[in-house]
Amino acid sequence: MAMGFGILTLATQDDCQKAIGLALSLRLSNPGVPIAVACPSSVKPSIEPYFDYVLNDDPSLRGFEHKLHLDRYTPFQRTFFFDADVLVFRDLTEILPLWSEQPYSACGTILTGGASSFGLDRAKALRTIERSRFTCIDGAGHAFFSKPDSFPVFELARKIAVDYAQRFGVSGKLADEDVMGIALSSLELKPMPSIPFWSRYLSGRRGTIKMNAAECRCEMELIDTGQVVRPFMMHFAANEAPFIYVNQLNLLFKRFGISTRGLMSMAIRDYYVTRVEWPARQFIKYRLGGMRHLFN
Predict the structure, then answer these.
(1) Is the peptide bond before 191 cis (omega within 30 degrees of 0)?
(2) 91 inside domain
(3) Which of 4, 95, 154, 193 is most exposed, with minimal Cβ within 10 Å?
(4) Which residues are CB-neighbours of 253 under 8 A, at least 6 positions away?
(5) Closest CA to 38 of 90, 76, 91
């Protein structure tokens, strides 16, 4: 039997410390709310002390596919899901009435075209599903859903994923946010407003971000509007601002008396991946594409 309201995340060996950081931020900002994690059995010993429920993930699934099965993982009737690289600063029950109005909710925007960062042509997708508006939740890193009302949403998303590449003309790996966006658009479910709930470090104007996760404090002046906000969460997606992020993890780990060993090496690794490895791959891909053009 599903329990009441709780929070769920996913963890792997690579982001184990990030998931612990999320859990610690939730202990401070949402005391008393149970937290669950779905992870491989090899991760359980290192992560178990920080979560109320440690669940086995499905070893047959890979990467983003796990997010299309959150309804199977969660032990709660009403669930807030967060990616492991999220920190939460405010009481989530403040927004539950609004977010509970539909079976699945996430911040985003309504679009009629454009391409996602994973290559989905939204206009083509809308023609395929015979809808006029696309519910875009790119890079959200979170979702709220209820059981059993959300079952049709997840079932449709899993059905879309079966022949996603062929039907929607997308090459490369499956992106859960695009698949879920197609499902939400098909069911005509609206996105939630991003402000003041969601943020990324790059959302704030330089010099205006005041953040201390160990004190549940985050305030910034938005770079695009100048509005001063106190976001509920910050998503450090795509290894964004790795040293700022690790500084916040350091504050949380020290607050709870947990060893910070490995945090700085994680920041260095994330910095290398985003500033060296990814650009190098793009450069090689670009050069190889040019060489193929010469020989065609």
Answers:
(1) no
(2) yes
(3) 4
(4) 20, 21, 24, 259, 260, 263
(5) 76
Question: What is the pTM assigned to this prediction?
Answer: 0.92
Q: Quick check: is 296 in a domain?
A: no
Q: pLDDT below 70 — which residues of the chain?
A: 1-2, 278, 282-296
Give me the domain span that covers residue 132: 3-186
102-159 tens-digit pLDDT: 999 999 999 999 999 999 999 999 999 999 999 999 888 999 999 999 999 999 999 9
Structure tokens at 51: 């979560």
3-state secondary structure of 84: coil
Whether residue 135 is contained in a domain is answered as yes
When divided into structural domains, the chain yields a total of 1
Here the CATH number for the domain that contains residue 91 is 3.90.550.10
